[in-house]
């Protein structure tokens, strides 16, 4: 079994257990459930820099990245740096994140927040909304076309933006539909962890122009972003490059200031 299959198998068990403890109807009572749309796609369309910064303590590919920081402070630092939105990993087992992290980030900033999660069930969308998310990630590698359709349509009805992530042409062809807002190309293969920015470059012309194009993973230089912009990318998801620093917000600020020059 590859790592992605293992993560998803564990996720199914986790969600089944959570559902038996806290019914979905509970999440609909959250004060955050009534929040209006706060669109990341819109923010990216208007932005010159397009940075989405991620809060990620560890990952299966890199183990520990940064365990010593406070998610609220990181979110505030990213916000001050001028990012368009923040991605918050909420998977506990493989990434050391939680829904609490999302809530704490929500309490700290007003900019769009992405719930970074392996979403396989509608229940997780209700959780995301109840904890202050504005955007959800759907990963084409782990979903069928009909699942992508059902999940993205429910997300839209909850005023959540949808970022659909692909890694190859087959996933892209399977997933394109009007209920998506952004198409993300993950430069990292989630089954082997190989990273290449060429993945974004190769797939760019196959992505219809009505979607905001986002390049994800392995981005660590201004030059990489300049090169990706030529291929039509408006959003750039950066995790490790900022998180490995003692002060991720400061590191994001230096990066964005440089990008503006
Ligand atoms: O830390 P990086 O290489 O900058 O990558 C960030 C982000 O793209 C990555 O964390 C990611 C992209 N898609 C995912 C799906 C699940 C978990 C994590 C991810």
From TrEMBL:
Catalytic reaction(s) noted: 1-(2-carboxyphenylamino)-1-deoxy-D-ribulose 5-phosphate + H(+) = (1S,2R)-1-C-(indol-3-yl)glycerol 3-phosphate + CO2 + H2O
A GO molecular function held by the record: phosphoribosylanthranilate isomerase activity
Biological processes, Gene Ontology terms: L-tryptophan biosynthetic process
Any Pfam family the entry gives: IGPS
Entry keyword Transmembrane helix: no
E.C. numbers: 4.1.1.48
UniProt keyword terms in alphabetical order: Amino-acid biosynthesis, Aromatic amino acid biosynthesis, Decarboxylase, Lyase, Tryptophan biosynthesis
Domain of life per record: Bacteria
Domain Indole-3-glycerol phosphate synthase: 4-251
Pathways involved: Amino-acid biosynthesis; L-tryptophan biosynthesis; L-tryptophan from chorismate: step 4/5
Cited InterPro entries: Aldolase_TIM, Indole-3-glycerol_P_synth, Indole-3-glycerol_P_synth_dom, RibuloseP-bd_barrel
Sequence similarity: Belongs to the TrpC family.
Protein name (database record): Indole-3-glycerol phosphate synthase
Source species taxonomy: Bacteria, Pseudomonadati, Bacteroidota, Flavobacteriia, Flavobacteriales
């Amino acid at each position: 079994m590859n790592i992605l299959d293992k993560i998803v198998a564990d996720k199914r068990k986790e969600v089944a257990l959570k559902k038996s403890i806290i019914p979905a109807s509970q999440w609909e009572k959250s004060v955050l459930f009534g929040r209006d749309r706060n669109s990341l796609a819109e923010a990216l369309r208007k932005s010159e820099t397009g940075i989405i910064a991620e809060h990620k303590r560890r990952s299966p590919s890199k183990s520990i990245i940064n365990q010593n920081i406070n998610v609220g402070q990181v979110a505030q630092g990213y916000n001050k740096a001028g990012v368009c939105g923040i991605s918050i990993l909420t998977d506990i087992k493989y990434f050391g994140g939680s829904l609490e992290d999302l809530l704490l980030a929500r309490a700290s900033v007003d900019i769009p927040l992405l719930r970074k999660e392996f979403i396989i069930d509608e229940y997780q969308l209700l959780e995301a909304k109840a904890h202050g998310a504005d955007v959800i990630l759907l990963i084409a590698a782990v979903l069928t076309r009909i699942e992508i359709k059902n999940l993205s349509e429910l997300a839209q009805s909850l005023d959540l933006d949808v970022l659909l992530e692909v890694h190859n042409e087959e996933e892209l062809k399977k997933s394109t539909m009007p209920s998506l807002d952004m198409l993300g190309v993950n430069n990292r293969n989630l089954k082997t962890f190989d990273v290449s920015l060429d993945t974004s470059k190769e797939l760019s012309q196959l992505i219809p122009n009505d979607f905001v194009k986002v390049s994800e993973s392995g981005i660590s230089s201004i030059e990489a972003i300049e090169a990706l912009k030529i291929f039509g990318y408006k959003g750039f998801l950066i995790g490790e490059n900022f998180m490995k620093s003692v002060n991720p917000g400061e590191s994001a600020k230096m990066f964005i200031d440089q990008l503006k020059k």
